[in-house]
Specification:
2 copies of one chain form a homodimer. Chain A contains 8 helices and 13 strands. With 314 residues, the first copy, chain A, is an alpha+beta fold. The first copy, chain A, has 2 domains: 4-152, 60s Ribosomal Protein L30, Chain: A (2-Layer Sandwich); 156-303, Phosphoribosyl-aminoimidazole Synthetase, Chain A, domain 2 (Alpha-Beta Complex).
Chain lengths: 314, 314
C-alpha cells in the first residue's frame, strides 16, 4: 500500500484536488496563495472574499528553542503573508490550537500574545477558534479571511514575456531567525497593486526558485535571473544557493511591465526607504528558469524546495 | 507552573479571550457557535459572513476502528452543524490535515471523500487548505465560511421567559456510531428561522444539559425540563442521564414563543415527517436548570459535559 512518504506532498494534493467539489462562485481555488470567492454577504460590488488556512507544527516549523511569542507570531504572520500575495486586506482570524495538557498555561498565553501582536499590527480581529487536546507535537492552525477588490487581485498567472522580475528584501538563511519574526508585506503589496505595478505576485515561502517556478508555470512563460543581482540576506552568509532555495523568506516576488520598472524603483524608494526592492531578472518566452552570470553565460536552475512528505527533496 | 490540565479548557479560553484583539465589524465573536462579521466584500445588504473552525484529533474524536470516510464526514459535518446553529448557509471550506507520512494514501483519500460527500450534500465548495506533517496523532481542521441574513440569525442570548424549549431528533448514545455519521441540521434551521419560530438556538455538541446551560446563561434565564418528555435515542438504551449529558448529538436545541408552539409542531410534521421534534420544557425566570418528574417534583440539573483538558469532568 502506497504511503504519503512515497507519494510526496505535491502528488497528494494533485490526487485530493480531483475528489473535492469546487463551486461556481470560486474565482481562484486550490493552488493559489488564497482562495478568492464571490460572497453575497456584505457591501461593496466587485469585492472578493479571500480565505486561507495555514498550520505550523512543533518540530517541523519551529523547534523547542523557539520562544512562544515567536511561535504565535509566525503562525499568524504566515497566513497574513498569503493574503499579502493576493494584495488583500486581512480582516478576521480564527485560531485552532492542538495542545498537550502538560503544557504550561503561561506558554500557551504567550503563543496567543504573539498572534495577537501581529494581528493587531495589521488590523486583524481574532474572532474565534478552539483548542483541542493532542498527545503528540502541538500545532496551531490559523484560518484567515480577508477582502480584495477584484481588479486589484494579482494571481500567479499574470506574468508576460518581457516583464521585469522584482523581489523585496534579501533572501536566504531565514532559518537563523527571520522565519520566527518576519513582517508580512501587506502594506507593500497593496501599495504596489494600487499603483498598477504588478502583473503577477507570490510570497516566497518555498524558496525563490520554486516560487518563481510556480509563477512561470501558471503564466506559461520562463525566467532569466541575473545571479549577481539576487539580494542575499546576511544570514545566508554569501551563499547564492541558499538565497535561491531556502524557504520561508516571506518576501514578495512579482513581475512588472518593463516600461514601468524605473518609475517603480523611484517611487518605491520614497514610499519604503527601509526595505530594499531589487530587479533580479526578466520573464522570457522559453520555459524554465535560467541563471546568468555577468559574462552572459547561463545554466538551467532546478527548483529545489521543500516537500513535506518526501525527505529526499527536503 | 500551572498546566492546561489544571486550568481546564473553559478556564483557558476565558484567559485567552482577554489577550485577543476583536474588531468593530464583529457582530458575534468568540463564544458563540460561529463568528459573524460584516464584510465589505460581496453583494447583499444586511448579509453577514459566518466563520467557524472545528478540529478533530485521532484518539480524541475518533478511534482507530473508525472508517476513514466517516472520519472525514464527521470533521466536515461538525463545522456544518455550527453554521446550522446560526441558521446560516454554508458556502466554502478549507481543510487543514496534519498527517503522518506512514499513512496509506488510500486512507487519506477516503477521508477527503467523506468530507467531500457531506460538503457536496449541502452545496459547500472545498476551496483550499493544506497538508502538514505530524509525528503524533493525525488531525483535521475544517475552516468554514457561510452567509446569513442578519435578521435571520439567532444567537444563544435570545431566549425569553415563557418560551417553549424544543429539540430535534433523539439524544444520547452518539458514541455508538451517530457521531461519525450524523446529518447537520442546516435545512431544518433555515426553515425554522425563515418562519420566525426561533428565539435562541444552539446545536447540541456538549450534551443537552450543558448546551441548554449556555443558552440560559447568555439569555439570563433558567429552564424547567420535563424528564418524561426528553427523547432518548435507542443507542442510549433508555438512560435519561445519557440523553441529558452525552455529547455530540448535533441536534438543534431552540426556544419558541409559547403561543407559536402548537403551530410549529403541525408545520414541522408536514415539512420534516422523518425527523421528530419534541417540546422538552419551558424557559423560566429562576436561573439554573430544573428537571421535573410527572408528579411535579423537581431537582436541579447539573451540567456535566466534556472538558478537553480536565479528565475529572470527562
Amino acid at each position: 500500500m502506497k504511503t504519503l512518504r512515497q507519494l510526496g506532498e505535491r502528488g497528494l494534493i494533485r490526487q485530493l484536488q480531483r475528489l473535492l467539489p469546487c463551486g461556481q462562485c470560486v474565482v481562484v481555488g486550490i493552488g493559489d496563495d488564497c482562495a478568492a470567492v464571490r460572497s453575497g454577504a456584505g457591501g461593496k460590488r466587485g469585492g472578493l472574499l479571500l480565505l486561507k488556512t495555514d498550520a505550523v507544527v512543533e518540530g517541523i516549523h519551529f523547534n523547542r528553542r523557539a520562544a512562544p511569542r515567536q511561535i504565535g507570531w509566525k503562525a499568524m504572520a504566515r497566513a497574513l503573508s498569503d493574503i499579502a500575495a493576493m494584495a488583500g486586506r486581512p480582516r478576521w482570524a480564527l485560531v485552532t490550537a492542538g495542545l498537550r495538557d502538560d503544557m504550561p498555561v503561561r506558554f500557551v498565553e504567550d503563543i496567543y500574545r504573539g498572534m495577537a501582536a501581529v494581528a493587531g499590527e495589521f488590523g486583524v480581529a481574532i474572532v474565534g477558534g478552539e483548542t483541542v487536546r493532542t498527545r503528540g507535537p502541538f500545532w496551531l492552525s490559523v484560518a484567515l479571511a480577508g477582502e480584495v477588490v477584484r481588479r486589484a487581485m494579482r494571481p500567479r498567472s499574470g506574468a508576460r514575456v518581457g516583464d521585469a522580475i522584482f523581489v523585496t528584501g534579501a533572501l536566504g538563511g531565514s532559518i537563523a531567525g527571520k522565519h520566527l519574526a518576519f513582517t508580512p508585506r501587506i502594506r507593500e503589496a497593496q501599495w504596489l497593486t494600487r499603483r498598477g505595478f504588478v502583473r503577477a505576485m507570490i510570497d516566497i515561502s518555498d524558496g525563490l526558485a520554486r516560487d518563481l517556478g510556480h509563477v512561470c508555470r501558471e503564466s506559461r512563460v520562463g525566467a532569466r535571473l541575473t545571479a549577481s543581482a539576487i539580494p542575499i540576506a546576511l544570514a545566508a552568509r554569501g551563499s547564492l544557493e541558499r538565497a535561491l532555495t531556502d524557504g520561508e523568506d516571506f518576501e514578495l516576488l512579482f513581475t512588472t511591465p518593463a516600461r514601468d520598472a524605473e518609475r517603480l524603483m523611484k517611487a518605491w524608494q520614497r514610499a519604503f526607504p527601509r526595505l530594499s526592492l531589487t530587479q533580479i531578472g526578466v520573464i522570457i518566452r522559453r520555459k524554465g528558469i535560467r541563471l546568468c552570470d555577468d559574462a552572459g553565460r547561463s545554466r538551467p536552475l532546478h527548483e529545489d524546495g521543500y516537500d513535506h512528505f518526501n525527505p529526499s527533496h527536503a
